[in-house]
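Section 5.1 Outputs to date
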Amino acid sequence: MERLKIVVTGGSGRVGRHVITCLASGHEVINADLAPPAEDAPACGATYIRADIMQMDDLRQAFRGADVVIHLAGLDYDWGCPDEAYINVNTRGSWHVLQAAEEAGVRRVVLCSSISICGLQEMRPDWKPQSLPVDERHENRPVYAYGVSKQIAELMGQSFARRGTIEVVSLRPLAVVLPETLGQYIDFVDAPGRNWLFYYVTAGDLARAFRAAAEVPGISGESFYIGADDSSHPQPTLDWAARILGALPETLDRARYKSDPRASVFSNAKARRLLGWAPGSDFAQLRAAHAATRHDDMEKV
């Protein structure tokens, strides 16, 4: 594998730390972020450069000599920012990254999009899955600003890819579960009457997807859902999906849910096929490990 110079915007963030650690074993990695990595972040040999994605000059300097840029910086949905902030930072910031990367002669930009692009996580009565599983061919109808900002960023990425001077790949992570947030996520999905679609991806699996998106040659203008094979709901997927959605969609891969009753409502088949990536998680095992840890902690007390 060719050793690449990879710049990661937002590398000091919760996901960014996992991505940088995953990349650093085989590549030269630059962390371009407003804040330096936390003191407890793994020492992986990455170089830190202070950079603001809203400042083109910062990005031009950070991207100098880079082969690949992985763009993670932006405002996260969980932060509850004002709508205008999501549109301003996530869309303008993505444009700045794409423009500065093209100017610098970067080969490829990997954008961190989101499941929110499809609008299904909004759980609106007027917008439900048109097929199961949902894949990249499914129509996107976001209403809220965060999802709209990601949709615009992907469209901008496609426009740069069409120019033919730079490759652009967009990854759409499902709900990212970090080791330190697993308990919170389990509490969320286990809440009585939870009206949701019970999708997830571990931070480690997501980091490997970003590495694959940086390394696999010949891919541009493509988007990928990045998620676990299974659901985080303990019951068979078609059972709880029928209750929550009111009815199952007409386009339904019954064979998939027969062979794997707890299969996710989102497909990762495209990422498997084109990126050679596959998740390694099993939510039943994650639950068991978390329960064992809690038991050990209670015994210590």
